[in-house]
User: Fold this.
Amino acid sequence: MAATPQPEPKHHHYVQRAYLEGFVDPDYERRRESYLWAYMPEKSPFRQKPERIAKRNYYYCFERDNKRRFDVEHALQQLEDVSLPVLRKLRSSQFDIDPEERLTFAGYMALSYTRVPTFERTINRVTAIHQAMEVERFAANVENLNLMAKEESELTGQEVTADEIRSRFTGGNTVVTQTSREWSLSQMIQVTIMIQQIVFNMRWIFLVAPDGDQGFLTSDNPVSLFDAPHVDIPGTGFLSSPETYLTFPVSRDICLLLKHRARVPQTAARVASAKVREVNKGTILRADTQLYAPFQSQKVQQLLDSVVNARPATKRVLIKKGRVVEE
Assistant:
């Protein structure tokens, strides 16, 4: 008898469960319980199990031929499986990894940057702007308008002028959106591959929290990019300046700091509690809306609230009277 196929997973973590397990509260861990502290805007910190946080239903699926496809979710699972031994090795302070392990973990960090909702929104916005600009350029080209008018006239049997075609593009407001999940997932994969090599070539500095410290926290944007000039193409910020650096908390005890201008491939440094607080503040500033920490702190909650509330409202991409705008 053939084996019964296993059901496909419904809940997809955009921050990996095994990764989140590195940030559980040590007080609960000593009691053999796995809880971390979750922070969300305008709420009090609450304890939660890693498997119940940072997930969405069918997040890495797309529709094709009226069928839900799990190809990307399967690919992510494979990468997570090969990365897990390296993650565990680093969490146990075994920083001497070989080039293959380094490349694997570079891919894991790159994916941690691209698999989150922030990246999806960014790629959708950039794609929408590009599509709108294509329409804008088309409407400004007289040859295009004449050709389109001619084709429509032949098709309908009624004379249509280039000015009439132009007025359709410039006579009102049209919201432009990118809604294809298959497209955004394909971009996620492409940008991951691009970033992987960049991250591999950077200098890796393992920051180790002092004994007795509350430790590092992480967020729904685990990779925090700093000193990168504003760019509209996702992923290019990693190479936009030699001063660009990033942080990636590995666990509550260890955080990776990556820089350009490498003299040595990697090193490790035990840091003071003040440095841990500095890194945590940067993580909070780069978070989308959620934090995951091994401790409960009202100051952390207040900072998250202020960061989220200070952000401008999300803008729409429009073709407004023939011009591309965001408002």
About this structure: The chain is about 45% helix and 20% strand. The two ends are 60 Å apart (CA to CA). The chain has a mean pLDDT of 92.
